[in-house]
Amino acid sequence: MTTGCGSGFGSGGAPQAPPAVRVCSAGRGLLSEGPRWDADRAELVWVDILAGEVHTAPVGEDGRLGPVRTLQAGRHVGAAAPAGGGGYVLAAAGGFWHADGDGGLRELAQPEAGRTDVRMNDGICDPKGRFWAGTMAYAETPGAGRLYRLELDGTCTLVLEGLTISNGMGWSPDGATMYLSDSGTGDIFAFDFDPDGGTLDHRRTLVHVTTPGAAPDGRSTTTATCGSRCGTAARWPVTPPTGRCGRPWRSRSTGPPPAPSAGSMGRRCSSPPPATVSTRRPSPASRRPDTCCA
């Protein structure tokens, strides 16, 4: 499911008719997630977590995907973001990697090295280019998830502990507030955000979802006027060094209908953002194919 720039509401707050939702990908994924538009490369980027794949494709004027190019990560990949010098920075397996344009992988930081019970999940670049990504346990163990920040120099910082399924990060249009969803607990959190230091403060719960079979997952932030926020994406630096991990801070039901699993701003303000849908909650052994919609 996707929404337009007004998120279902006009500039005066009046409800609008929901936009049409249609399938835009030709194939199905095992667990498609994290679609985001890269305006510089004019391509949509998304991942198939369980297949260990990073997909990119141009988007036509009709909203349909062009030829899809696939990079094989060789491990479960939770998120991908474009890197300034080419390729992509990945949150995969137990840490962070850089994939070049030919699919070659270079290790950056491995904060969960040696663990087979957890994996990286959703990730996103902040306005300064730092890459944030969270973890979750395959068993969805309460409190087993963490949130990490990959710094501009390649070092890795543990930001939060005690999460269950770290998901759905983003920032307010002014960059002063960061949002984070925990799909395991049903909470959407907000934090005061320091853009220079990348630190979080004043954690509060915006929404707690109690509806059976529903959980907060992907998200997009919009403004009433849309402005320059549509179709833009932050990038990670050009040639990151191999990183290390420091710790200075601590701070869905089976079957149809499919649930939205991730969303991102689309290619223009008048277009609804692309999203992926998931037909089941995470279960690697029983995952049914997912679809990319627009």
Task: Describe the protein's architecture and organization.
The protein has 294 residues and is mainly β. The protein has a single domain (32-282), classed as 6 Propeller (Neuraminidase), CATH 2.120.10.30. 0% of the residues lie in helices and 39% in strands. It has strands at residues 32-38, 43-48, 53-57, 69-72, 77-82, 88-92, 95-99, 105-109, 118-125, 131-137, 145-150, 156-163, 166-171, 177-182, 187-194, 199-208, 245-246, 259-263, 275-278, 291-293. It has a 5-stranded mixed sheet with strand order 9-10-11-12-17, with no helix packed on it. The protein has a 4-stranded antiparallel sheet with strand order 1-2-3-4, with no helix packed on it. A hairpin with a 2-residue loop joins strand 6 and strand 7. It is globular.
Question: Secondary-structure map with pairings?
Answer:
Blueprint: E1 32-38, E2 43-48, E3 53-57, E4 69-72, E5 77-82, E6 88-92, E7 95-99, E8 105-109, E9 118-125, E10 131-137, E11 145-150, E12 156-163, E13 166-171, E14 177-182, E15 187-194, E16 199-208, E17 245-246, E18 259-263, E19 275-278, E20 291-293
Parallel strand pairs: 12-17
Antiparallel strand pairs: 1-2, 2-3, 3-4, 5-6, 6-7, 7-8, 9-10, 10-11, 11-12, 13-14, 14-15, 15-16, 18-19, 19-20
Offer a few descriptive terms.
294 residues, 4-stranded antiparallel beta sheet, Neuraminidase, globular, 39% strand, mainly beta, 20 strands, 5-stranded mixed beta sheet, 0% helix, disordered N terminus
CATH topology group: Neuraminidase
Element-by-element helix/strand order: EEEEEEEEEEEEEEEEEEEE
Count of DSSP H/I helices = 0
Biggest β-sheet description? 5 strands, mixed
CATH superfamily: TolB, C-terminal domain
Low-confidence stretches: 1-11, 223-233, 238-261, 263-272, 282-289
Distance between the termini: 8 Å
Please write the CATH class name.
Answer: Mainly Beta
**Topology, number of strands:** 20
What Rg do the Cα atoms give? 18 Å
Counting structural domains, the number is 1
For the record, the CATH architecture stands as 6 Propeller
